Amino acid sequence: MKKIIALFLVWYLFSSGVFGQSLPPGQYSSTNKKAIKYFEESRTLFNYKKDAEAEKKIQAAIKEDPNFTEAYSAYADFLGYKGRYQEAITNYKKAIEIAPRFMVDNNFYLGRACMAISDYDNAKLAFQNFVKNERINPNLKEEALQLIKNCDYASSLVKNPKPFKPVNVGAGINTSFDEYFPAINGDGRLFLFTRDIYNAGNPMDHQEDFYMSRKENNVWQAALPVPQVNTAGNEGAPTLSADGNIMFFASCIGQFGDYGAEDRKGYGSCDIFYSQKVNGRWTRARNAGSSINSANWETQPSFSSDGKTLYFIKGTVDRAGGRKNIDIYMSVIGEDGKFQPAVRLSDVINSKGNESSVFIHPDNMTLYFASDGHPGLGGDDLFMSKRQPNGEWGPPVNLGYPINTANDENSLLVDPSGKLAYFASNRDGGYGGLDIYQFDLPEDIRPEKMTYTRGKIYNARTKEPLEANFELFDLENGKNITRSYSDSKGEFLVTLTANKNYLVNVNKEGFLFYSENFSLKDREADFSKPFVIDIPLEPLDTGSVVELKNVFFDVNKWDLKPESKTELIKLAQFLTKHNTVKIELGGHTDNSGDKKFNLTLSANRAKSVMEFLIREGKIDAERLSYKGYADTRPKVPNDSPENKAKNRRTEFKITGK
Questions:
Q1: Contact yes or no for 293/287 (Cβ under 8 A)
Q2: Global confidence as pTM
Q3: Are residues 216 and 264 in the same domain?
Q4: Which domain holds residue 39?
Q5: 118 and 159 in contact (C-beta within 8 Å)?
Q6: Using the 8-state DSSP alphabet, how is residue 288 labeled?
Q7: 423 lies in a domain?
Q8: pLDDT tens, position by position, 247-287
Q9: In a domain, 505, yes or no
């Protein structure tokens, strides 16, 4: 799961170097038999992972023959593999100085090593020297030409740094072990992450598990393991639904359920699993299915706050277990509640390189991810893309320096407020290993302003909490924003974009259809002040009355406004499902104006609703009736403009079951 800093870069340096070549005896630049003997012994020791002994032998080879070009190149590869880039640069330069035309690829790897220490000017010069040669690997040449552009781009980023002051999130989350891949719920108070616990006596013996922390008085409390999900195998890269009740994560178990998780079988390599919280406990993890998982590598999921889309990373696995073609995919949940076949995001997002650490912000408009294929500072950089009006993703924007550096950056998480970002780092001053840090996200790379809504669904008569499905719509265009449900306590939480008007519909078997609307247009997106809405559901009994709060008319008119359609379609669906129910539609006014006109107005408004249900909803007219009540049945006294508005309403009453 874990991605160690600079791992890809140093692997690249080593695998393409002299140690990776097989040069027959007699074809070396050196004729010193002792130097050649040390060189070949060094290569053998390295293949057996005896690095310290291998380094001594390669140093001995250079000492025996100070002009042994292959030895300098191989030593530079080795030093790059170890992350000792400055020493690697010295040895690449020495190899080039001795024989500038003998191993021309050295200029390419010299450029990569310079990029690793943010020396972009010298990196560019090395790549330019490399492409001047005629007989070079065409793939490396293409990459070098792109890296020349990257060096220019990286220099411009370094000259215009972003404000960046990372702060360790504290001992509640971080320990002497590695903590990484954070996730957070919709109100920003529940924090989930991966912790790698290893045996100090045996570094190869380690265990990746999930831990969870809650924020109290603005401090993350001591994290606790998630026992129902953690197994004897490894779990990592979690994501939470907005309400914190659904968790997706990656687990590398394989087809035979090994590593102590007999019930967690996969399709091969790493798969994505999910678990739901029921009565305060997480259910047994289930495979997300063949629409998402395959014999290849699926990991690092991110679940959209509207509960409709799962973004994740997919890569192919070769026979040796290596991964390539690593891209971002997405799968949408269909009307049947099942994931549809995953699709790869466009080439605007996915590059010729590798993408990772995808994160969809709760605004569902801003995508963050890591990539080594888009222009950056070297290794994996963090990028942001905004959803365009046509629904496509816009060009990736590099988050800038020093958020990005020449090392690999990943595991970025932006909290729902859009102001704070979290990431994993092994920088000095932490608790040990990788720690999780937070920093203020610069304004120009923040997501859309968000807030969240929480509330409770309950029986209007008994006050008993209810588990129920609900939907939220954008009132202006009728677009479904989210589908979710309340938990066993009747509670729910959803994140919403500020500055919009919303419609909420709630359905539960045995209860009447419920609707409400609320406005966030003039409400500041303040996460300390969520919008709270409690929803009482009336049992489906004869005589029960429900107000249609999302049916609208212009003043003194009875033509339905377009915003009413979403609500009335839901009412039609309710009547179609309960096909024996009969209702009366009632129109009501306040006490202002002419009594006779108000009676006509209220009756015609109720009639307009009935006609819509017959025409658009295909409801049998015999099940419907209407009546105008004018101001004869006020909900509240007509003693203020606010109360008068409450009395102007449309209702339906159950007249038969």
A1: yes
A2: 0.78
A3: yes
A4: 7-159
A5: no
A6: -
A7: no
A8: 999 987 644 444 444 456 788 778 999 999 988 889 989 99
A9: yes
